[in-house]
Structures are given as C-alpha cells and as structure tokens.
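[User] At your convenience, examine this fold.
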Amino acid sequence: MLSDGALRMLVLLHFNSLGFTPVQLAWLFLLYEVAGIVTNLAAGWLAARFGLAATLYGGLALQIGALVALAQLDPSWGVAASVAFVMGVQGVSGVAKDLAKMSSKSAVKLLAPKEDGGLFRWVALLTGSKNAVKGLGFFLGAVLLALAGFESAVWGMAGVLAVILIAVVLFLPAGLPGRLKSEEAWGGWRSKDTRVNRLSLARMFLFGARDVWFVVGIPVYFQSVLSDGSAEGRREAFFLIGSFLALWIIAYGAVQAFAPRLLGAKGQPEAETTRKAIFWAGLLVPIPFVLAAAAWVAAGPAPWLTATLIGGLLLFGFIFAVNSSVHSYLILAFGSAERITRDVGFYYMANAAGRLIGTLLSGLSYQIGGLPLCLTTAGIMALASWLAARRLSSV
C-alpha cells in the first residue's frame, strides 16, 4: 500500500507538471481501475483454488514488475505513447494491489475472533492501518519526486518492495489458509446474498463520490493555486499537495480504526450496524454540494475557497471513513465462510468500478465545468450511495 500510494502521486504530479490536461491525467489511471474490476472478480476464484498466500505473493511480485517497467519510460516519447505505456503499467499495478488487498481482507474473516465484536475490530484495525500506510505513500511519492526525481524514485521503491517480498515469503506465519473448499464453478461471480449485492452497489457510488474530486480535480486545483510555474514553485507545490492528500488518507485510516468504538459495535446486532450504515451514508451527501456552491461563488482560485475546501474535505473524509469501515465489516458479516473470497472479490470489484467511474468523471467534470461541476458530481454520487444503502433495510 505504501508503494501504491507513492506511485499514484508520482504519476499524477509528474505528468501534471509536464502539461497533461485533466482528461489525459484521468486516462492514466483508467486501466488501473479496470484492472481492479477484473482482478477482484478473478481473485476470489484464484484464492479458492491456489490459496491466499499465493495471491498475496503474486500481488507483491506484480507491483515490483510494474515499478521496473515504469522506470523504462522515455521522456522523448510523445503524449499518446506515454499515456498508453503508463496506462498499461498502472493496469499491472492495479492487479497487484487488489490481489494483496483481497488476500488480507479474506484472511481476517477466517482468522479473526467472532465473539464480542471481534470481527468488526479486526476489520477496522486492518483497514485503518492499510489506509494510513497508503497515506504515507502519497507523501512519500511527492517527496521522492521533489528530491530524487521520477526515475530514481521508481527504482528505489522497486528495490525496497523486492526486499519486502523476500521477507514475506520467508517469515509469513503459519495459519494463512491455503486452498479453500468451494463447490461453485468459475462463473459464480454475483453473490447469492441480496445484502452483499446491495452493499456492493452502495460501495461503488461511495468510492465514486470520493475519487471524482480526489484523483484529478482537487490536486490540479491546488497545484494551480500553490505553484508559480517555476521549478522551485513546482517542488513546493509537490510537498504541499502530497502532504494534504497524505494527511487526508492517514486521518481517514485513523477514523476507520476508531469506527467500532464510535459506533458502539461491541455486542451490537448486525441489524443495528446496518441501520447506522444508512444513517452515516446520508450525512455525507450535503458536503460536496456545499463545497460546489462555494467554488461557484468564488468563480476561481481564492484563499478563502482553498481554506473552505480543506476544512470541507477533511469533514468529508471523517464521514467517508466511518461509511467505509462499516461497509468493510458488513461485507464480512454478510458473506458466507464457504465463498468468502468470492463475496469479498465481488464487493471489491464494485469498489474498483466506483473508482473507475469517479476517475473518469474527475477529469471530464473538471475540464468541462471546473471545480464546481467536479464537486457537484461528487455530491450526486454520494446521494446515489445513500439511496443504495437504504435498500439494505428492506432485506
């Protein structure tokens, strides 16, 4: 997750500094999200067939390969060739990340204690720490780009990740399940549990609501505000943007880890947790619309708007984190142990689909209507997530 966050920031800031448009920047991440959709569907079957340890090793190895490939990028290539190449490398990185994430999340369902809210606590701890590490990756990517340059940063991350893979292979504790028993054929993607399917739909719109502003819109706006166009100004902007996104992700992870205590999960019935999931989904909806109105009133970059965006997006992150943590618990609570890798895979397929939609809309909405349209689109996605979550109460 550290290298995944760092790689995203490296690619975004490096190519934005080369003059790529918002739509071109969005294209760089599209195959990454498409790969996440395909991987999460296939990963459940792969884990059931070959074991969670094998999919974890595969994810780490593919990420190393993606970093080594990205280091071969030639600055003399044209825009079309550069976009196509980076899209392909990002696709491999997307496969790597989702193999590793699906493996770890499925293992929690099988290994965590079930009594006294133990599953919710373990899921929240894993998810929160994962996102805190990814947030550090955003900061690391910005720092490496400013201090070491693009190519050196990529090679350095590949080397460190290779050491980590060797350590995982040598020291992974016994107990991570091998091949899982399952009598379902390859084609059993969609869950037989209506709750899993409806939760997955809510998850898709939830992450779309975040990535509409997170992937392109806000970083590009901040760079336009913080950089004066000089080399020194760009480096300073890299640090500040990376620091904000890192802070956002780290705080998001911390709130996720705290969510079980915030929601009183200890000894709480599943139906009550579902009700709270619907309530918190509703709280998220007005924030992007309020920020969009502020951006429309400002009609361009302004110090008060930047301060409003920072405060509003931190509040968005707090509520978003609670929603995400509850979803991560409910998918494991709803999913059956016999096909947990497939239920989790289907759920994270929806997660990746939401990121794909959000990524595409981020570039398109920002280029067509600037920050106001970008944030309005995020609000529409948040509204759709709440409407989908409400259907859980009727199951």
